[in-house]
Amino acid sequence: MTSDSLWHREDILDQYARPYDPWTPFIGDDERPCQLLGAVLVPIPMQPGQPKRDAHAYARHGTCGVLRAFAPQTGFRYVPVQARRTIVDDAQFLQDLVRLHDPRVAPIRLGQDHVHTPTPGALYHGLPPEEACQFAPLFELHDTPKKGRWLHRAEIECAALATQCLDRRIPDRDM
Fold first, then answer.
1. Quick one: which of 110, 106, 114 has its CA closest to 93?
2. Per the domain annotation, does 173 fall within a domain?
3. Helix residue ranges, H only, the chain
4. Is residue 95, in this structure, part of any structural domain at all?
């Protein structure tokens, strides 16, 4: 294990261990791509002793991105579903986090994984430079180590969402 990954693991654990402070909240973020799949045939409805039955065939209706923000100390959850996943969408996600919390809160301690996470640099793609410059300092980034994703509570929340909600056919983003 490198000293860098050890530092990341200790840093993320320190973030979880800090006492709750409403002026510097800790929020983990994660994302999950989803396929939008519709039924080709009408499913057979559930009956006593029989689950609902779908045909193996399906119609693919594209994809979407499910982002997730989770504050473990307060139970706050924010789950926007986006048609695509671009750096501009990341900027909107970060802006929404600031708006959902008190804008006077500074900084929001953001726990992230290494796969594809929004960073304050994304703000410069989605906002005029003056506004992005005001938003960027509102975030303090804390990376989860590559081999320590089990430490990332937002990822655990995404896994729960996937197994409890997203493990079935969903034909569109509005469902």
1. 110
2. no
3. 3-17, 87-100, 123-126, 129-135, 153-164
4. yes
How many structural domains is the chain composed of? 1
Exposed/middle/buried for 106, CB within 10 Å: 0-12, 13-18, 19+? middle
* Rounded Cα gap, residues 1 and 22, in angstroms: 34
Which CATH number characterizes residue 75's domain?
Answer: 3.30.420
46-81 tens-digit pLDDT: 999 988 887 778 888 888 888 888 888 888 888 888
Task: For residues 157 and 102, give the distance between their C-alpha atoms in angstroms, rounded to a whole number.
Answer: 23
Residue 96 placed within a domain: yes
Residue 114, CB half-sphere, CA atoms under 13 Å: how many?
A: 12
Express each pLDDT in 88-131 by its tens digit: 888 888 888 888 877 677 788 888 775 556 677 778 887 888 88
Residue 38 inside a domain? The answer is no
pTM of the model: 0.71
Domain span at residue 110? 3-30+68-164
